[in-house]
Structures are given as C-alpha cells and as structure tokens.
Amino acid sequence: MRARNRLSPAFVRNAPLGKHCDGAGLWFVKREDGGAQWFLRVTVHGRRREMGLGGFPEVSLAQARETADRWRAVAKAGRDPVKERERQAREAARADTTLKAVATEAFEARKAELKGDGKAGRWFSPLQLHVLPKLGGVPIDELDQRDIRDTLAPIWHTKAETARKALNRLGIVLRHGAAMGLDVDLQATEKAKALLGKSRHEAKNIPAMPWAEVPDFYASLSEPTPTHLALRLLILTGVRTGPLRHLRLDQIEGDVWTIPGEAMKGRRGQTPDFRVALSAEALRVIDAARPFERDGFLFANTRKGVISDMTLSRHMERRGLEARPHGFRSSLRDWLAEATDAPHEVAEAMLAHVTDSSVVRAYRRTDFLEQRRVLAERWASHVTGGAGRVVKLAGAG
C-alpha cells in the first residue's frame, strides 16, 4: 500500500513551484503565478483519471484528503469519479428550484421565440435588474404576492413600463415552474398587482411631427451626410429606426427593399419578411448614401457597425425639436388618414402593422405592395414640397 499523508500544513503553505504528492494519488500543485490547487489521480477500468479538488487555501490539506478519500471510494466501487461528479452536479441543478434557476431555464426555453435568440437581453433584463437581486435565491414555490410587491414597489410609479415588463416576465417564469411540476402560486403576480395599486405614471407617446411640417424639415436635411440621408430615408419609408440603420444593399432589388423577418418587431419565426416600396426619391437618397457603405451596410458608423439610434435623435434634439425619429411613422399614418383615401388595411400595411385575425391573415395572400407603391410616391411628393418638385440632395447627381 502506498504511503499517504506525506505533506504537512506548513509545507503546503510554503511549497516551492511544482507538483507535490501527498500519496495515494493526491497531488498539490504550486503554479508560477503564485496560485495552488489540488487534484486527484485514480485508475478506473484500466484508465487513469484526473479530477481537480479545488484551490488552496480555499481547500485546506485536511479537506483535500477528506474529499480524496470520498472519490477514491467511488473509483474502488468501479465508477468513474469524474463522471459521477458531473452526474451529481446535473442532479443538483435539476433540484435547484430558486427563482433565479427557474427564470434562467424559462429564458432558455423561450430564446427561439425572441429576436436574435434574446441576445440583446431585453426579455431577461427586467428580471435581472429589478427582481433577481432581491428574490433570486428564494425557492419559487415559496414566492408570494407580498415578496413581489415589496420588490417592485420602488419602481412601480417611477419606472412603470419596466415594472410592468418585470411582472409579466415573472408570470411567465411562474408558469414555467408549474410546468416543471413545482407547487407555485400562479396568481401571485395578479395579487401583487392588486397590492401595488394603479400606477401614477402616465404613458407618453413618442413625440411626432405634424405631417404638414415634415416638408420643411425634410428640406433642411440638405447635407450629404449619413445622418441627414438616414433621416430622409426614414421619413420616406416609414420604417422603424432599427431596420433602417441596419439596411444592407443586398436587401434592395429594384425599387423594393426587403427587411428580413428577424429584423422586424415581433417574435422570431412568427414575423415574415416585409417588403418596402421605394419611391423614386427614396432611391435617390439610397444612391447618395452609397459612398458611405461599408461591410454591406448603407449607414455605417465612422468607426464600427452602423450609426446609432441616438445619432438620429440628437440631431433633432439639437435642432430644438420635440419630435423624435420614430415619430415620423405617426406623421405618415396621420397623413394617410387625413390626406388620402387609402383603405385601412393598406394604410396599416404601410407601417407593417398587423391587422385582422390570424385566420384572416392566413387566407390573405397580398401585402398590398402595388397600392403601397402608389402611396409611397404620393408621400414622397408631399415630403419634397408638392407634386412636380423634388428636393435635390446636396452633392448628389
């Protein structure tokens, strides 16, 4: 039988660099960076296995010997200690029913439904920032409405939209816990909402520019810069800022710009590609922006990636305008309602809004592209100052 307990606590504290054997496969390693760790070597079915037992001084000599004895017994019984430890870790993970563990599992299960697999973090962040720091360690089957109320009360009136999202996500997590077979209170979020009361916060719409004022603003965007050109195209197309900022030239074919479904607002896999009818003026703006193209993106940042949302907003803010870029969608929608006879479903299609029931949409095969093409030209005519007058881009053509 090999000698054991060769090392002493004093030696371990002052050990020189290198590997030092305590006996029976237990080794102490002192690294060049000053750190140290324990590992155990055993033989199972003729195969040598090594497993780490932790670092020193977190794991003392006595603790390392005790742990080594436990895993030697596993090896003696003919089981691989490395795989056995992995199995125990998996079982422990399954047994973890804290809110944090279940919330993480619920998020993973829903990633396929989220835009970009949820990498932006918007689905999980309300929980991560405002719920899990206080309740993450609470077993989900012990969570009640008072816990939720006390956690969300500080932001219920000051950050109402964030609190609403956190409550919504929490409800989804509770349902996921119930699906796991845990005894959770599925009404806890509704009860908490009743305890919190009505929020004093009033939701505010993004300020929009009246459609009659858009031509003057459009005419002021006379510089051939990415910011001016992006704002022009934003106004002309009525799209959201995200797809516009990430516009790639290979998405344009003729006078149609196809926005991939994953770039549209909605759940991944449930949002189809969206075709944008480009007016002659929009095509002129795109041509003027081509010199700024980099890596396929039409509105590239001077350093890396694409221009930011804040770049467009700050331009309007510096001009002393209350309106913001996203508000041009409202400008277009109001113009469609007040200055055209466009049918409701066509007007809504201009903004990629979903209308009617899922059954009706399933049978309707058109996206009203031809009707939208006519409206896009009429809107461009209005924006550029009236029929027959097109604002010429500085430096273009």
Describe the fold and architecture:
- Residues 204-376 form the Tyr recombinase domain.
- The protein is of the alpha+beta class and 397 residues long.
- It folds into three domains: 9-94, Double Stranded RNA Binding Domain (2-Layer Sandwich), CATH 3.30.160; 99-196, Orthogonal Bundle (DNA polymerase, domain 1); 211-383, Orthogonal Bundle (hpI Integrase, Chain A), CATH 1.10.443.10.
- It has 18 helices and seven strands.
- The strands form two sheets. Strands 1-2-3-4 form a four-stranded antiparallel beta sheet, covered by helices on one side. The chain has a three-stranded antiparallel beta sheet with strand order 5-6-7.
Question: Could you give a quick summary of the protein structure above?
Answer:
It contains 18 helices and 7 strands. It is of the alpha+beta class.
